[in-house]
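Supplementary material to the annual report.
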Amino acid sequence: MHPKINGDRLWGSLMTLAEVGATTGGGVCRLALSDEDRLARDLFVRWCREAGCSIRIDAVGNIFARRTGCNNTRPPVMTGSHIDSQPNGGRFDGAYGVMAGLEVLRTLDEADIVTDAPIEVVVWTNEEGTRFAPSMMGSMAFAGLLEVQQVYQITDAQGHTFGAELERTGYRGEGLGGTPIGAYFEAHIEQGPVLEEACKTIGVVIGGQGQCWYDLVLTGQDAHAGSTPMARRRDALVAAAQIIQTVNRIGSSFPPGGCATVGHLSVHPNSRNVIPGCVQLSIEIRHPDDLKRKAMDMAVRAAVREAAATGRIEAALTQVLDQPATPFDARCVAAVREAAASEGHSHMDMISGAAHDAIAIARIAPTAMIFVPCAGGISHNETESATPHDLAAGCQVLMQAMLAASTAVTPGADGFS
Amino acid sequence: MHPKINGDRLWGSLMTLAEVGATTGGGVCRLALSDEDRLARDLFVRWCREAGCSIRIDAVGNIFARRTGCNNTRPPVMTGSHIDSQPNGGRFDGAYGVMAGLEVLRTLDEADIVTDAPIEVVVWTNEEGTRFAPSMMGSMAFAGLLEVQQVYQITDAQGHTFGAELERTGYRGEGLGGTPIGAYFEAHIEQGPVLEEACKTIGVVIGGQGQCWYDLVLTGQDAHAGSTPMARRRDALVAAAQIIQTVNRIGSSFPPGGCATVGHLSVHPNSRNVIPGCVQLSIEIRHPDDLKRKAMDMAVRAAVREAAATGRIEAALTQVLDQPATPFDARCVAAVREAAASEGHSHMDMISGAAHDAIAIARIAPTAMIFVPCAGGISHNETESATPHDLAAGCQVLMQAMLAASTAVTPGADGFS
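Predicted assembly:
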């Protein structure tokens, strides 16, 4: 049994989907639960019904298209991603994982293959979190990490609630999670430059980074830039500069996989001829190894203390996120790696730097991800791009991994047992 | 002839003036040509008329109170400052120089002293530049650095023109500059911490700093903070941090008098988990010695080039101001120094870090300034404060310097010749 997915059909699905909410810059704008998101969801549902699937919608609007197997008491082998986008998003972020799942359904139909466990393709609601925060809302709620009644009350910038928009778009269903998943695979563009740079087609994603987020407020003394001698200054921005440089060095000091970033910074009073009295900034550190992340955390705290002491600055550091690393399931990861090898695709193990629905689902089900390269590592951008060849390769690997999980001969708690 | 100013009366004038536009925080709000500014001007005019002076208003609202001398063909010896304030200004910035001039008039009257050259006390219009930009508007126009018709068209945030507000408040007079000034002295709080730290009562101001202002745009590549390896980044904020630290070191490397500041900085897209792709910032350098300022300028340019090369960042540096240093007149400075010494006040030569009307007037007349300490160097702030002792000392020095200039026996083009 060695079916082949149809790369042209996959590309066609992606391009048709990209017409829904298409932007003039070549990207898409499909904010969660917007009219464009609804049209894209309607299209997905129609295509899956045409492929013979049954459709189920849960209480937060996650859509499950189910293809029955021989043994429908087994938990499903699931794949999917999201079809909402950033305001100036690309055509592949999320959409690829959903269209790859659809292509698997179509290929299995064409080849008359009946899997042992049922197969499900899922569209998770509001992965981007741009219109309604937080991100990964649908998969987080499914995994029991968000309460449905709280989710309903979340509002967008115009004051619309998630619950009302879910109702308006016709995607408020029943139930939420609680049923086991045999295995979950998610195909996605990398959203980073690693595969392209390494000239590899398939990223075998072995897990997600752990993260620490911090808010830092540096308070010195704003004063006249002309009449305050250098030695008398308590310049909060000079202290911030020292911290930014040290944070950057900390990121580079924990290879491979260490990242450290100051992304947000604001200066007060932010006037050309006033020494900055206060600076607020964000720090984030990431590492796939929680012990190394702990060492980075200690280095960040030391850097803040040192800059504060040097500049006679008060520093208030608040940790706002402490998220452990998410190792993926060894058997799911092995299934992806073996599929890539058997298909003859160059591949490498890697860590997911970005957050994905799979990171939430990994809390409750055996999970792995498949990355394919995206041009220049650019994503969340209208110019986001990937090649038909790489997209087809990732889809083929996805199908092979799912078949390995769904046809495992011994039914049990999950697809591989 | 050794008259003594009345420190209590000076303090009383200051406190009475501070009631006009008093804020709840203990400061004043007298924006230029506001009703509060008009009331303060009316008070000044009344006090000067009571002291026997004639009043003249020029085309931009500068007020000249003239006390005749023996030889009224000699150009006047002038003192003054401004009585407009910042929105949350203090009680002494500007007001001190005007009330000190008034106190000199009153003291000379009490002592029945007639100077050889006439004495004038001036209120310059809109020194702060908060409501109508630029700052030092009245003195700059007087010195021929601004055109009166252009000044009239300048609007505030509500769309009121300077000309209409000048008319409304009753301070639109005739003529502008063109008459010689024998010598100009301005007393002012230091607005910096130098005198307080050095435990000196009198700052003998020998000139104003030269300044260079720059705008800098750093362009890298915004990218995902989780999926972009450290070595691949083009982080504009990391480059900015390197520049901020180097600019700070440049300021410290040119003592005495060197200052270098990054006061304004903005980050794009300024999101916690996005590597900053663009940073805009201001740089300013100041030095009383134009050759050293030129060396600082070259060091700044080298720092920008180096940070751009290190971080693979595009840097666009634009110089927006190149203002040479303003050395004050040697004889006026000597008169201040000698007065401080003869009155037995501790004193030191210093540079004005802040801009003042005297910087504009120095272009057209022999000029010096007298600084007195202000608590903590804090100014442009409701908590701005100075001691009655220091204010009286500065006023006494002012009077002695003015007497030296106005009673010089050989009349000529200026007070000392």
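Residues 290-311 of chain A form the longest helix (22 residues).
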